[in-house]
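Sanity check

After download, print the first record. It should look like this:
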Amino acid sequence: MELCHKNSILENPAIQRLGQFVRERQKQWVDGVPNLEVYERELHERMMNIECELMGEELARYDVSVEQIEVAGEIYRPILTATETYLSGAGLVTVGRHLYRPAGRGSKSICPLELRAGIVAGYFTPRAARQAAFVTAQLTPGESAALFVELESMRPSRASLDRLPKILSARWEQHRQDWESALRAQETVPAEATVMAISVDGVMAPMKAGAVKRNAKQAEPGKHASGPTGNREIGCGTVVLYDADGERVQTLRYGRMPENKKTSLQQQLYAEVASIVAIRPDLVRVHLADGAKDNWRLMDEIEQMLKLPSQTCVKILDFYHACDHLKNGCDAAWGESTARSKAEFERLKTLLKEADQGADLVIRSLKYQRDRARGTKRQRLEAELTYFRNQRLHMDYAEYLCQGLPIASGVVEAACKTLVTQRMKRSGMAWAAAGGQGILTLRSLIQSDRWPSAWALLRTDFCKPVVALKTTGTSQTAMSSNSSNSWTSIALTEPDDFARLPLAI
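Expected structure tokens:
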């Protein structure tokens, strides 16, 4: 049987054409050195053709022709046989398959081939869908399509690449909590981790007209409510594990389209933190933020949900945001970008970071300058002085550094850039909720090093068990829908199961 199988492969017309091509290529060396690029391209093309032909044969094995099937507890009967073209990693594959419809109703038809093979969006094979999703997460649909053309592999259309992230994200949202829990169950908390830092931030992005809501009930308090017209705030969150030397050992990133109080983002961060704390309660928890009240509130609520002693959590104001306010104070006191202002800023910045109770020294200096100032200058100094007083409890930077704690929220700010800005804030772009979340979900999984495991969950969800119903002792091909014979079922899970059934191949 093995020999017959080998012979059948060798007799494949595409393989025979490949052999002829190789023999002709060998003859070209008689006349000189042939063009390598041309050979490489032509060889690749022929290999792709072989792959497509073999994929067509393989896909046909997933089809089934019986009088009745059961899917998700519902009975379906065949209605027609038709060809369909699918996109594999090597290109287009056309195959015949059967369509079924629920008995007695004019509902939407189903295709057992697609359900058993796990065809994504009625078009992509699993491998093709994975590759297309990964590329589209990085590039626009147009850029993605152009890249596939240059790679001379499959050639999905811009429209199919635009739809795919939305479809995958919708599936992910249906199972989000369970699947994210499954991802966490597959991972381990690095043994060298000593600190867990949680951060939240946001970035304004352009929304389509229907995605921007301005009424009082739907408007969320925070930056996006006062942003530029047509823009709203996309929420970003990170959970970062550090070792004793302050080096990152694990970084998890989340991005969510605009929503009231960043509810989904908060749920995701809480689940992540709770899972890590359950394994490593000894980790020092750090809340890193830029000082925005909404961000502090969100993280405070996470901490309350954990129901752990508050003293085990350290709240730290991002050092560089504090420096921005310090610079504003220095410019107000000594003049915009003057030599004196720059010198005082460097001096106070060093004190803020390295001196014991450095924030108190800064406050004292700003107060002295405020008391001597008048008019607008005094108002500017008063504003910065108020900022430092309000955030004083989160500015013990010398102590934080001594404990090996991070003092900068650069990770979450970088997440805002890499998750959102680089992909979603290009010229002319505007986003609806579904399309935007599709990109954010894919990029979050990829940038959190969870894409392979996440894809395994997504791929499986497009596969549905198909049960073929047959009568005992009666040929299936002779059965009618009115037969009074008793029905038995056979679960079709592997291609070999179809050896017992009449197939459409």
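If your output differs, re-run the checksum step. Summary of this record's structure: The beta strands are 68-71, 74-88, 91-102, 193-206, 231-243, 248-256, 284-289, 313-317, 466-471, 487-492.
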